[in-house]
Amino acid sequence: MRKLLNFILIIAFLGGFYSCKQHKPDTAANFNAKLKEFKKNIKNVDNTITMVDSLAKQQARINSERDAGKISDSEAKNRLDIIERTLGRKVARTTNLHPAMNLPGWAKDLGLAMPNGMKLDTDYSQATSEKNQDEGFNSVVLVFNGNYKTAMQQAAIIAKDAQVPLTKEYKTAFEMKKKYGDEIIKGAVYMNFDLGNPVQPKYSIAITVSENGTLTISATDSKGMEEHLKLNNLTAPKNPDSI
Q1: Over the stretch 58-76, which tens digit does the pLDDT of each residue have?
Q2: 90-113 residue pLDDT tens
Q3: Which of 4, 64, 73, 91 is deepest in the core (most CB within 10 A)?
Q4: Confidence (pLDDT) at 195
Q5: Can you give the residue ranges of every domain in the chain?
């Protein structure tokens, strides 16, 4: 689920960064200023890539130690949580070029709503708008923190109202828990699209709950995003797992 969120955040970051290349200097007088700003953006991208690389390496090392039996599952989880709260949050703040505080009107028209009893995490929440020429397409990612039970309840309510189904894997897990009482996996993932399927809805919607009680609501105009990235000579990642 975090990989799916990272995928959405990276796409928004790339779209926002490369949009600055669309502006041509109006006169020779402001060329140096714009060149300086462009170099600054390049440096920010380099710094972000370095942080993302460091984050991935630290996570991989901890997972490797856990798989080798050098550390327990609980210790691995605690260490991963610390990395996410520190370096992971720093990456989020750096890449958040379009902060969001609420659902835009077009997202509400899709049936999405804000959850009750949860706190918006502004570091990870962002949006773009097709009305903004630089951003080029509609997208929103809202991340909420709270307790696990509330997150699960709110996700189910929002998904039902927006007619977004559980993924097959989580539907099976829910049925197993109801029948046998065993919780195979924690959390939930509701999606109205299948990764890798060539036929996709205009708006790709995902509503997820992590085992620590984080609720994430995301919606993206997939076709609009693809057109915007092509305009900037970019290609969207085909699979979030590759991020």
Answers
A1: 778 888 888 999 999 888 8
A2: 666 666 667 899 999 999 999 999
A3: 91
A4: 77
A5: 2-242
